[in-house]
Amino acid sequence: LFTSMANQIGVALENAALFEQLRTKSQQLSALNTVAATVNRSLELDVILKETVERVCGILQFDAVWMYLIDPSGQELHLMASKGLSAEVVRAMSRREIGKGNMGKVIESGEPLVYEDVQTDPNYLQYSAGRRIQSIGFRTVCNFPVKSKARILGVLNLASYSRRRFSPEELELIGSIANEIGVGVENARLFEETAKGAQRLSAL
């Protein structure tokens, strides 16, 4: 009897674990589809980034999300959209020199940086140029490369005031979202270049 009960409990626990995995996967797919729909809603770069940053901040429950793109010269990063940052902070962070700090390392390596506690993490203290994020009071910070066809276009940054731990699935989801944004950025730029080319032809 006890053996039978133990087996039934084991099956129930296994089913519960499988259900939780499916529920989590479903939520992640829903989040990714929501971001994809937002990215594909417009071909105007400013609109795409503003709406996407707001959507990502809400879906992933971060206190702040902001997005940098590499400028055409390839020498600077420009802050293009943000959610959860004060106007003063946005002004102070509007431009960043490529090759410095955590974002410079992300662009160089093409790999994300995730700090669960920037207040104590020695790697953050080593790579951070001005430690501005630490001074704002954030605890957890993620820096993800935004790519399109293996080319890095910028960096997606996410931060929380409280400490967070991430599962591999959560980090995979954020990476997928960053790639989705990269596709949207590339499409918007191609549309803009095509429109400018058409204007030049019509002026001839």
Give me a quick take on this structure.
The protein has 204 residues and is an alpha+beta fold. The protein has helices at residues 2-39, 45-60, 87-92, 101-109, 122-127, 132-136, 168-203, and strands at 64-70, 76-83, 95-97, 113-115, 140-148, 151-160. A 6-stranded antiparallel sheet has the order 3-2-1-6-5-4.
Q: What's the SSE blueprint?
A:
Layout: H1 2-39, H2 45-60, E1 64-70, E2 76-83, H3 87-92, E3 95-97, H4 101-109, E4 113-115, H5 122-127, H6 132-136, E5 140-148, E6 151-160, H7 168-203
Antiparallel strand pairs: 1-2, 1-6, 2-3, 4-5, 5-6
3D structure, described in words:
The structure is a single chain. By secondary structure, the chain is of the alpha+beta class. It contains 7 helices and 6 strands, in the order ααββαβαβααββα. It has helices at 2-39, 45-60, 87-92, 101-109, 122-127, 132-136, 168-203, and strands spanning 64-70, 76-83, 95-97, 113-115, 140-148, 151-160. Strands 3-2-1-6-5-4 form a 6-stranded antiparallel sheet. α1 runs antiparallel to α2, α1 (2-39) runs parallel beside α7 (168-203) and α2 runs antiparallel to α7 (168-203). The mean pLDDT is 83.
